[in-house]
Amino acid sequence: MKHRTLWNRRHFVQIMGISSLGVMNSHVPWLLEASKTKNRVTPMFAYVGCFGKGQGDHVTDHSEHAIQVFAIEEDCWTPTQAVASDHPSFLTLHPTQRFLYAVNEVDTYQNLPSGAIEAYGIDPQSGHLTLLNRQPLSLSGTMPKHLAVSPDGRKLVVAVHGGGAYNVLPIDANGHLGKVSGIVKEMGSGPDRERQEASHPQMVMFDPTGYRLLGADLGNDRLSVFTLAEDKLTVSERSVMQPGSGPRHMALHPSGHLLYVANELDASVSCYGYDATNGYILQRLQHVAMLLSGDFKERGKTVAMAMHPSGQFLYTSNCHRGPGDIGTDGIRAWRIDSSTGALTHIQFQSEGLRFVHAMNMASDGTNLLVLSEKQSSILRLRIDPTSGQLDQPVQVAKVPSPMSVALKYL
Amino acid sequence: MSIETVTRQDARYNTLIKGKNARFPASKEDAASRIELCDNAADVAEALQRTVNAGLRPTIRSGGHCYEDFVSSNPGGAILDLSMLTETTPVPGAPKYRIAAGTQLGTVYSDLYKRYNVTLPGGTCGSVGAGGHISGGGYGLLSRLHGLTSDWVSAVDILTVDASGKVVPRRVDHTHDSDLLRACCGAGGGNFGVITNYFFDELPQVPQEVMSAYVMFAWADMTEERFEAILTTYGNYLETRGKDPETWGMFTIFGLTHRSAGHFGMSVQFCNPDGTCRDLRVLNEFLDLFASCNPVPSTPENAAVATGKRLAPMHHAGQEACSGPHMMSRHLWLDANVRGGGGGGGEQRGKYKSSYMKRNFTSSEVACFYKHLTRTIPGVDLSRSTVSVDSYGGAINRKEMVASTSMPQRASVMKLQFMTFWPGEEDAAGYLAWAHDFFSELYSGPDADPNHKETPYPNDRYEGCYINYPDKDMLAYSFWPQLYYGDQGLYPFLQGVKRRYDPHNIFHHAMSIRP
User: For residues A63 and A53, is the Cβ–Cβ distance under 8 A?
Assistant: First the structure.
């Protein structure tokens, strides 16, 4: 792998287009608007949730976990502030980009069994964070994994892994989080006794309506459609997937009629039809196994997915450690047939990519940001706009155990 | 009748959303969105299934006496109200005696007496519901003679929720799901499922009559030396002579009430082990012990103060006082035990703590009691703040019950209940601080386990806390489960039961068994 500590102008321009919300950003009008406006696509600050000590001039303390703030100028990311935060495994920005929200992926908060969500205000000049407040999740709602802010910026919905639940928290005009106002407790289990003994929601995302959400539940092999109204979440549709598949990540095709699901446990990707008007998950159109060898157990795990904004390409990450820690993990690039949902394999890029935990797609489709937890680095891979092929990875920042990144453009 | 669902729009909502402790729910956001009033076990199963299907959290209420917010704090969830499940008639094919979970203790005693001349050695508050009381190991005035309520349970009807989210009705006994039966005998309510019936193959016979007596002391001329003499006389008796089976028919509630109340003292109920009051030597011997401690005559007022209103004063109710050296009165057992009163009302706010003691009080402990019971805090009226030191042990301490129940405390001679009450929400802080400071200091002394300061962690003097007197302050200690369930393997057992029968942790509250 090639490490470059200094960027040239061209690289900087390429990274500018990277969005903060990865696969979800295409459904957040604010960011789409930002990405469409040429003079606004320059990322000014990066926020990285990491399971390690932070760095910079404004390290508030030396806690084990932090949200690391980077100022992005020209061709380098400069760490400027580290805010202590307990297991900040997923970050997302408010649509106005004035506030940042982080999940605390913990099983105890204030001596009770629950995770928590943090709200931060962002200084528009320095990009520095100030904690606004912290709210516990519902009792027994531990180890939250993911959250989504409604396009109107008034609600936040959390996928709660440990308690098998989804929580809704209201957001006030100043970015503060209110108490949990809606709870949906999920049932069901799957054949994997270790990972699927109970419901374990992994991800939530709003569909194009802005009031409907999709949830992926690894524990019960289920996708759900929820309706958000008056601070409450109600289930409007269930879709049962292949037993033992373990859905983890979702991405909607820009057309809104194809739903791709990365299944962690059986290392596969499925494509379903989606009726965005009525909120129905339709029949499965495609299913692709990420086979690394003939043995089922050797397939590894599909942990992340990113949709290209053109709708032509899909990227999936696969983690696998074989004997002697020899990795066969990397990122696969796929071409999408937007009429059938079919995936055609383009490329398997593994060089320099180990333990890819998360991926974020640039909103203009020029780059893919890759977070490698164990390599403690954030890498950028250029995307060929015609072929969808990925270039060699370039390290843009060194951060201890990065789990999630959010970029502020405005 | 079908299930009666009370939602926010219903005129009954504001009444039914609360239990007996007016502290909870602490805010509108914490309140349940509905109360499902059930008439029978089939209703409960239907209401539970509906609740689970809707993704809501169920909490369960029978008598509504939970000291903490385990039931009432249920944001947007559903309270399954079992208070109308009050049947005590037999069920074909089940053990002889049946008590439905919503039955209040007063009715339990009355019905069992009339039907069978037996009773349950349960608590003194007649409006407490059987559901929570028995599952948390309830005890009372006959417990030294007959053990805990949980010791007598033979079978339980319980609704659990399986991995697929389906409600499963079970009758668990010593041969069917016996691990769940054991868990239902002391681990506390709201942990594994919804108990709808308790069954008993046998129950103890009712005493024919009981004696009632009071020993009262005035704070006005109390000295710390005399206070110590009183407490250590009491504790010494229970640690020594009180272990003799001939004393087990005696149960004492010693209310150490704050000085501002004017008095403190004890209420005694006594019968011989055969359920008669023919031989009063044990009672007189006990009362003699305090003759030199300057007791004062009891009055309805000071007797009520001394017991924290857990008991209605008996021998001031017009019955004929007995002759003899001590003031006492004789009552038919049912009259003495089915009075309907006692316990917290729906308007008061209270905080409770508990501990088990294996030994008499030490000087250092007495000094701490004296300090906090005579302490004054501006703006805080502590006249309704009491530490109720109940006699314990006797038949409770049968070691063989450790393995068959989830009540591991089988070596204590006293059980302490710390109680403080206040009128308005805005007053809470001072009262909570008094209780917290008192308890923390008491268990930080030279007798406390240095690795578990501020708590009565099990050691040679203490035996932890009582789950039916739950105290969320204990959550601040990582070892809180060991305070309630001991450190001899019961808690891991209960966690296994939890995972097996409630794989989704549907039944949870702040101090429920962690999966």
Answer: yes
**Three-state secondary-structure class, residue B125:** coil
Q: Which residues contact B231 (CB under 8 A, 6 or more apart)?
A: B256, B361, B366, B369
Closest to B215 (Cα-Cα) out of B291, B282, B141:
B291
Q: Give the CA-trace dihedral at B168, B173, B175, B176, to 10 degrees.
A: 0
Cβ–Cβ gap A164/B476 under 8 Å: no
> Residue B164 is nearest to which of A138, A165, A188, comparing CB atoms?
A188
**DSSP alpha helices (H): ranges in A110-223?**
none
pLDDT, mean of each 10-residue run, chain B (515 residues)? 92 93 93 97 98 97 96 97 97 97 97 97 95 98 98 98 96 98 98 98 96 95 97 98 98 96 95 96 97 88 72 54 71 74 62 98 97 96 96 98 98 97 92 98 91 96 98 98 98 98 97 97
DSSP H/E element including B407: none
Task: Let me know: does B70 contact B189? Beta carbons within 8 Å.
Answer: yes
Give the residue ranges of DSSP H helices in B247-350.
Answer: 281-288, 300-306, 333-337
Find the Cα–Cα–Cα–Cα dihedral A76, A82, A87, A92, rounded to 10°: -60
3-class secondary structure, B473: helix
Residue of B436, B505, B511 for testing the chain A interface, max A β-carbons within 10 Å: B505
Contact B93, B82 (CB under 8 A): no
CB B183 within 8 A of CB B191: yes
**Cβ separation A181–B76 shorter than 8 A:** yes
Looking at the DSSP assignment, which residues form a beta bridge with residue B355? B416
Q: Give A241-264 as a DSSP string.
A: --TT--EEEEEE-TTSSEEEEEET
pLDDT in tens, A194-250: 999 999 999 999 999 999 999 999 999 999 999 999 899 999 999 999 999 999 999
Distance set, CA A389 to CA A13, A21, A143, A333, B504 (Å) = 19, 22, 35, 7, 43
| CB-closest option in B27, B57, B504 to A198 | B504
Q: Name the helix (H) or strand (E) containing B263.
A: strand B263-270
Tell me the whole-structure pTM to 2 decimals.
Answer: 0.91
Contact B504 A199 (CB under 8 A): yes
Residues A134/A139/A142/A147 CA torsion (nearest 10 deg): -50
In the stretch 65-124 of chain B, residues with CB closer than 8 A to chain A read 73, 75-77
Report DSSP letters for A85-109, one per residue: -S-EEEEEE-TTSSEEEEEE--S-B
Question: Residue A35, class by beta-carbon neighbours within 10 Å (0-12 exposed, 13-18 middle, 19+ buried)?
Answer: buried
Q: Which of residues 313-352 of B touch A (CB under 8 A)?
A: none
B424 touching A, CB under 8 A?
A: no
Q: Which residues of A touch B163 (CB under 8 A)?
A: 187-189, 197-198
Spatial separation of the C-alpha atoms in residues B352 and A10, rounded to whole Å? 68
Residue B403: which H helix or E strand, with range? helix B401-404
Among A405, A410, A392, residue whose Cα is nearest residue A349: A392
ipTM for the predicted complex comes to 0.88
The owner of tokens 């383009």 is A346
Report the distance separating Cα A186 and Cα A350, nearest Å: 37
Q: Which of A65, A15, A21 is nearest to A44 (CA)?
A: A15
8 Å CB contact between A375 and A401? no
Asked if B298 and B304 count as a contact pair (C-beta separation under 8 A), the reply is no
Size of interface A-B (CB pairs under 8 A): 65
Closest approach of chain A CAs to the CA of B457, in angstroms? Answer: 18
